[in-house]
Amino acid sequence: MSDRPAITLTVNGKDCTVAVDGAETLLETLRDRLSLTGAKRGCNQGVCGACTVMIDGRPMRSCLSLTANCTGSDIVTVEGIAPNGSLGRMQAALEETGAVQCGFCTSGMIVTAEALLRDNPHPSAADVQAGLSGNLCRCSGYRMIVEAVLLAAAGGGESA
Amino acid sequence: MDDAIDPNRSVGRSANRLELREKLTGQAKYIADLSRPNMLHAAILGSPHAHARILGYDTKAAKAVPGVHAVLTGDDFPDGRMGAFVKDEPPIAQGKVRFIGEPVAVVAADDEATARRAAQLIEVEYEELVPVLTPEQGLAEGAPLVHEDLPNYFMVFDAIRYGNVLSETTLSEGDVAKGFAEADIVVEGEYETPAQAHVAIEPCGALAEIDEQGRVTLWSANQSVFRVQANVCESLKLPMPKLRSLTPRIGGGFGNKMEAHVQPLVVQLAIVTRRPVKLILSREEDTETVRVRHPFRIRMRTGARKDGTLVAREIDTILDGGAYGDDSPGVLGYSLLMSRGPYNIPHVKAHGRLVYTNKLRSGAFRGFGNPQVSFAGESQIDEIARRLDMDPIELRLRNAVRGEGPWFLGQKLASNGFVECLETMRAAAHWDERRNSSPTPGKKRGFGVAAAAHISGLLGTGAIVRLLEDGSVVLNTGAVDIGQGSDTILAQICAESLKIPLDRVAVASPDTDGSPYNWGTTASRVTFTTGRSVALAAAEVAKQIKELAADMLECAADDLELRDGGFVGIKGVPEKQLPLFLVSIQAHWRRGGPIVGHHTWVFDRPTVDPKRAVVSGLPFRQIGVYSFAALAVEVEVDAVTGKTEVVKAWQSVDVGRAINPRSVEGQMDGGFAQGLGFALTEEIVFDNGRVVNPTLMDYKVPTAKDVPFHMQTIIVESPEPDGPFGAKGVGEIGLVPVPAAVANAIADATGARLRKLPMTPERVLTEMLPPETDDDAA
Fold first, then answer.
1. CB contact under 8 A, B27 and A145
2. B268 in the same domain as B229
3. Which ranges of B191-275 does DSSP label H, i.e. alpha helix?
């Protein structure tokens, strides 16, 4: 362990120092070292989007992001989207629309949708379809997830 | 929306998933999220050959890697055989390998990277054998045998088997020769459908832990804790009390997690190492080594009279079963049972052969053979409508199975909303006004319809409802919620049956130690079969509540009723009532324990009426009740590239009764999307037996941009007398009609008739172009 460089990064508002080798991905660090298992390994290739987390405010594939490159970065995972016990607007909108089925893609969807809404507060359905097209869901057919994003944009997700 | 609804009414309400919050906050624990103290991580080594004899192993280099705790090959496993229909599959390759990627060795190490590195250092000596790469090769005279021992394998039904044919099934009614002689027109074609990958976003995985007595606890991504237990114990020759099978949250299944994947491997590693062992497949391993939807080759012809009356159909199919039997004989039998479609056709003959090949095994996948035959059948209905210049919905209505049917082979239907599905779909899609707007420039627009029926039922189910001391309930069914929402649905049925709020029902996680037997989350069956058991177990609880309350209220049990909110009271006397907790406390004090209701069931109406039908090689005697659906799609086909986009979809579905309407819509939306992938983009491509596109980069499942946002589901409720509150299943039916509806819309848009899936731009364009003539060639 001693020959591994210590990396300091902020995860969900807390400073963490981890000793990792150069090949370790942020997804591995989050899941295996920090016990944040909300981000999922669906393909480990950057296609399915289930591992999406915010890195310095941008939704990124944590399976393709090396932890060693995240020194000083601010990481937000699904566990950090809203303070303990509360839901963010996208989570609340998903609760209201009932779009969640198996839940395996949900963490990544939430992170991607939060970024989408921040960058485009009033998206059209087509904007949302395009914005979520890097996050695969095999259960829902997407319609209710798109509705949830539109609902969150309309302010429907603020109540929780 | 739910605020206005009485909290004591649970059935018919779009209640949220019981476990929703944990899924929204990243707290839900799937198999990869589980960990045990001192846990090891495993990796597999797959076969590089499609068909080869294993001559020997050299594991020295792998064992020498620091951090490696065990390297096991076929020699280190018991020689048991597992399988749902035929016991033909060893826990790991033994003696020979039968497909590329088949696990030949497995490693347990301190971490996954070390295990994977060590697995690559295992040397296996092979003697290559001639592979069987297609069913046609397998059927050829003198073909090499994939399973030399087929005649000796134990089978759960009396299969017709020979050579590489694992099962041959023939079903007939009437006299097809006579039927075709009566036909004015006959359409005929050969249809091909590819292997489709399930692509649950969660890959398969398992974790096994052994105790000091040698008893193993096994968590795995699964669709049935009981099938997991049976598969592991059969293949490892392990007495069943030695294995307890449990389930974490499941990240989708679609059939991929119904039978075994890596469970036998981790159990054997745990037994050998005496440590907990976890193995999670990579996406590529999941795609290459678990299972796929059966490739079908279908020859079908259908005859009709000039007035549109269908008179005859004949179908001959060949299924590529891959290297092991898995659920294949069931898929063959079921697909033939569905090959008539939901129509009255007096003369039908259906024949099929299931052939072993040296490829990844085929198995259960949402639709279970029905999407393949429905692609052919519903395409032919459309062709007949075009030839006769009839509206395709009118043609279907003219021939629709109505009332009690019967279904092909003779089963009578107790609920049948098929006609209402066609009519409500037609209205929702504004079908009769569909040509009133113009297509996008450069695109050809078309509309297509297709219909479907699908069973819900099959095999055993049960429920235990236990009244806790405070008057709330624990429901235990053994049915695995794979993400489709059955925990919530079953809790709704339980709550409604006992007139208590939904939040007073807890659902026990499936556990082979304590749950009633449940065959599995498959065959669109949990709401219908397990839901029925829940309702009847709850009725038993209600009966016992009344018996005890009668004593307490000094009245007759027959004079009592359950009341909303958890009360039992005397009919017509509102002030005479007891809260259930008082009754339950009395049960604990006076009767020595809680009130418990237990019910088990298997669907029992015969599939075959021997007076109507002649049948051979059909693996099931009774199957289930029928749900119905009708689908219309609007497509745009790019005139230059041939790319097809579905822009709108309307679907009606008869579910008997929607216990949770939003979950019904979720199943229909999701089934549609998966069917859309099957129709347009998804195909596992084999090159000499090797899967060439195991990554999600190369295997294209529909994204949010590919599935129309304009997708409407109309729920038709034709109550099923056997179903809980009239409900029947909806898990698979949404996928079934999609390929044919899209093919029919492409034909409408372009005149091109596609008979091979997926309908890629290249294939559509090829069919759109006029055939080459000699002049073109010159």
1. no
2. yes
3. 225-236, 263-273
CA B267 to chain centre: 26
Q: pTM higher than 0.90, yes or no?
A: yes
Number of domains in chain B: 3
Nearest to A101 among B27, B484, B696 (CB): B484
> What pLDDT band is residue B5 in, cutting at 50, 70 and 90?
low
CATH code assigned at A34: 3.10.20.30
Which chain B residues touch A94 with a CB distance below 8 Å?
24
**Do B662 and B677 share a domain, yes or no?**
yes
Residue contact A106–B23, C-beta within 8 A: yes
Residue A136 to residue B703, Cβ atoms within 8 A: yes
**Inter-chain CB proximity A79 and B665 less than 8 Å:** no
Looking at CA atoms only, how far is residue B283 from chain A in angstroms?
5
Answer yes or no: is the ipTM higher than 0.95.
yes
Whether residues B26 and A143 touch (CB distance < 8 A) is answered with: no
* Structural domain boundaries, residue A119: 89-153
Q: Do A74 and A93 belong together in one domain?
A: no
The string of pLDDT tens digits covering residues B710-755 is 999 999 999 999 999 999 999 999 999 999 999 999 999 999 999 9
Last residue of a domain, one of A80, A110, A144: A80
**For the domain that residue A112 is a member of, what is the CATH number?**
1.10.150.120
Chain A residue nearest residue B198, CA to CA:
A138
Do A113 and A57 belong together in one domain? no
Q: Distance between CA B169 and CA B84 in Å, rounded? A: 17
**B80 and B208: one domain?**
yes
- Does residue A33 sit in the same domain as residue A53? yes
Query: pLDDT at position A160, please?
Result: 41
Nearby residues of B759 by Cβ (< 8 Å), 6 or more positions away: B644, B679, B680, B739, B742, B743, B746
> Which pLDDT does position B775 carry in this prediction?
56
> Mean of the pLDDT values across residues B10-28?
96
Report the alpha-carbon distance of residue B261 to residue B280 in Å, rounded. Answer: 10
Inspect the interface and report whether the beta carbons of A48 and B16 lie closer than 8 Å: no
Domain boundary among B567, B586, B601: B601
Interior angle at CA B750, CA B748 and CA B753, nearest 5: 75
Q: Which strand (E) or helix (H) includes residue B633? A: strand B624-638
Q: Residue A160 domain-assigned?
A: no
Contacts of A39 in chain B (CB under 8 A): 26
Query: A41 touching B, CB under 8 A?
Result: yes
